[in-house]
Fold this sequence. Notes:
Blueprint: E1 25-33, E2 37-44, E3 47-54, H1 55-61, E4 62-74, E5 77-93, E6 101-123, E7 129-149, E8 158-176, E9 181-191, E10 197-209, E11 215-232, E12 235-253
Amino acid sequence: MTSLAASASFAEPIPLAGQSEDEWRQTLAFYAFLPARTSGTSTVAGATVPLDLDLGDALELLDFAAAGRYEIWRGDWGFIIDANYVSLEADGNLPTPGGASFTADIRQKWIGLLAAYKAVDAVGDNGQRYAIDLQFGARYNSLRQEITVSSPLPVPVLGGDQGWWEPVVGARGTWVLNDQWTAIASLDLGGFGAGGNDLQIGANIGVDWRAWDSTSLFFGWRYYSMDYSDSLSTGAFEYDVDQHGPVLGVKFRF
C-alpha cells in the first residue's frame, strides 16, 4: 500500500500584511504527497508481503487520491479540519496450480479535528516574524486491505476494513523570510495504541511562495509512517510502512 495524498501542515497562523489579529483568518489548502520510496510490510489473512515501491510503482497502482486542509484563526487560537483519501487497486494471478486471479482493494482515509494555539510569536534578527503553534485533537482513521480471489470454489474475501478514533498532537514552526517566501516545518503524531495503531508520524519541511495576494504555492519534503496491527476473523491484519518524498500544495487565504 502507498499514499499519494497525505496530511501536510503547511498553512500558518501569521496574518497577512494588512490583516488584523482580531479578524477571522481562513486558509483552504489542497495538496499531494508523491512518495519517492515506500518500504515496509503489509499483512492480510496472516500472509505478509514486503513493500518496496518507487514513485512509478505507486502511480501505476493509484486509483484515486485527494487531500485538503481548512484552518480558521482568530488571535492566538485556531481550528483545523484535515482530510485525506487514497485508493489503490491491483490485480494478478496467484503462484498456485491453476493460477487463480485476484484483485486487491486498498484504501486509507482520515479526517482530523484539531484545536491549535500559537505559543510563540516573535520578530527575528531579519525583522521578520516567526511563530510556533501547538495542535491537539482527534482523528478518525480508516484502513482497508481486501483481497478477492476468483476460483471455481467459494473463496472468502480476505482482509477487511478497520476504523478507529485516535488522539493527535502536533507542532509547527513558521519563519517569514520576506514578503513572498516563508519557511515551514511541522510534525504530527497520532495513534498511541488506539485501535491498534501504535504510532502514525507525519513530518514536513519546505517553503511557501506567495505568488499572488491571497494564493500561494508550497514545495517541500515529507516523511510519513504508520505501524498498525490487529486480528480479524480471516487472520492477522497489519500495515507497517515508511514513506518519504516531495509534497506539493496550493492554498487560498480569505
